[in-house]
Amino acid sequence: MTPEQRFQEIVDAEDKIEPTDWMPDAYRQTLIRQIAQHAHSEIIGMQPEGSWIGRAPSLHRKAILMAKVQDEAGHGLYLYSAAETLGVRRDELQELLHQGKHKYSSIFNYPTLNWADIGTIGWLVDGAAITNQVMLTRCSYGPYARGMVRICKEESFHQRQGYELLMRLCQGTPEQKALAQDALDRWWWPSLMMFGPHDTESTHTEQSMAWKIKRVSNDELRQQFVDMTVPQADYLGLRIPDPELRWNEERGHHDFGEIDWDEFWAVVKGDGPLNRERIAHKAEAWREGEWVREAALAHAEKQAARGAA
Amino acid sequence: MTYEVPVAPGESGEIETSVEVAGGTWQMWEVFVRARRGVSHVHIGSLHAPDSETALQNARDVYTRRGEGVSVWVVPSSEIRSLEPDEAADYYEANEKVYRAATAYDIPDEVGKM
Hints:
Oligomer: heterodimer
Number of helices of chain B: 2
Helix content of chain B: 10-25%
Order of helices and strands of chain B: EEHEH
Strand content of chain A: under 5%
Strand order of the largest sheet of chain A: 1-2
Strand order of the largest sheet of chain B: 2-1-3
Helix content of chain A: 55-70%
Largest interface: A-B, 64 and 40 residues
Structural class of chain B: alpha+beta
């Protein structure tokens, strides 16, 4: 049996591939790309919400938001840790992000304009993330799948706090409810875009499916998400901004309108509302922390030298 | 898809995975957490830190934000010696020694549960 056959046998048996196992180069590269982009997304994802910590309307909401943003940092770190098992280094991946050579999810290139955006991100963006990440807990690469199990547990808190925040706004004054509707109007389509291009347009899907890195197609996940979200919007009394959205009895699913693919590709290519600002902010924060990292290292070296003496 | 970025038409799906980084780097530590009393520490992931004290603090923040552990170990990753995959084969392929298994011995039912 060749190493490649042995590898595929493990994958087909729904067993996990572990770091020291032989794996095809393309499998390793696909995983590095995907896990690095996922990690970068979690880290950049701290920005849209972090910008509201100082403006949260109560101490309670501030504490929740800080816990959530801290979770996003944690998720990024679990993922860099998984990526490092594939022979890459976290500081190098991060440097590539700062240089604009690595990408992250387009959703974080949209601005958070009002307080209801924070609830909407939890409800829709984290909701879309859960749909995807639950699938990834069954991914064939052990460290990635294990990271996803931890992340999914925490995402549930993210989604529920977001929905609860919106419930409060929707049960509040007409002005508060209008904030929630405004946020939904702006975040609905970018959230659907998170699932990526149509299956017919999606490159690499077939190979990723055969390797069991990806288990469910983009369009199937997007449909799951729409079906799950529509009744939740109804409960809030909010209107989803899609005139073509309706229940299709025959299919047993909701039909919905077409994504603006020109906008989709423009944001992927770097021309979204905030692509440049997000990277600049991240790189600046890293530079500002340099003296702390250097000092900690110098302290550790001094302590070690003293211990050795 | 979600957090994986699709390849735009005209762009390459390949990404760089290595680059020169300025400045010193913090070493890598493996983190082990005892979830509750009565069970062993279990490997949970890795992190970077300049020394063991900081590694423990980081481990607490990264891996036990919701009381997931009652005890944490951190070990420098470079100190872990592991079997090479071809050495490991000798271990997991040792299953032909069936006489080591309890099920290899037929005991009559009338003897009772054994």
